[in-house]
């Protein structure tokens, strides 16, 4: 599995998000073991401490759990937790500003709903 990193945000956060993406895609099912910090650091060519910081972020959020001597595993309920967090982030980052702009433009709820439906049918 390849991980693409950029300079726009802290690397450990990007590592955590990419692991979440892999969990959501089914690459790492719940209760499965994920690669070690050493493996991730080699794949991404970054310091193992940075990878560990990303892992620990996911442990704090109860997305991953540690099995002493064995490594990190995906927590039961991880998909639901990731989805709930991302839905809330999506709402705050996109839906609220969208609704605020629509309100400024005098668009009715029905107008906005129709625009969104149009995007879905256009495949965009």
SS-based structural class?
Answer: mainly alpha
Oligomeric status = single chain
Q: Give the number of helices.
A: 5
What percentage of amino acids are in beta strands?
A: 5-15%
Largest sheet: 2 strands, antiparallel
Task: Give keywords.
elongated, 124 residues, mainly alpha, two-stranded antiparallel sheet, 2 strands
Task: Write a brief structural summary.
The chain contains 5 helices and 2 strands, in the order H-H-H-E-E-H-H.
Structure description:
Strand 1 (64-67) and strand 2 form a beta hairpin. Strands 1-2 form a two-stranded antiparallel ribbon. Helices cover 62% and strands 6% of the residues. It is elongated. The chain has helices at 11-25, 37-44, 48-60, 78-104, 109-122; strands spanning 64-67, 71-74. It is built from five helices and two strands, in the order αααββαα. With 124 residues, the protein is mainly alpha-helical.
Strand and helix layout:
Elements (H helix, E strand, L loop, with lengths): L10 H15 L11 H8 L3 H13 L3 E4 L3 E4 L3 H27 L4 H14 L2
Antiparallel strand pairs: 1-2
Helix pairs in contact: 1-3, 2-3
């Amino acid at each position: 599995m390849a991980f693409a990193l950029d300079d726009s945000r802290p690397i450990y956060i990007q590592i955590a998000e990419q692991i979440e993406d892999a969990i959501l895609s089914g690459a790492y099912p719940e209760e499965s073991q994920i690669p070690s910090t050493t493996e991730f650091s080699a794949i991404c060519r970054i310091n193992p401490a940075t990878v560990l910081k990303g892992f620990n972020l996911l442990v704090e959020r109860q997305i991953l759990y540690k099995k002493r001597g064995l490594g990190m595993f995906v927590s039961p309920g991880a998909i639901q937790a990731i989805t709930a967090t991302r839905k809330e982030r999506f709402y705050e980052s996109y839906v609220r500003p969208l609704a605020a702009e629509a309100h400024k433009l005098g668009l009715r709820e029905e107008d906005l709903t129709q625009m969104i439906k149009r995007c879905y049918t256009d495949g965009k």
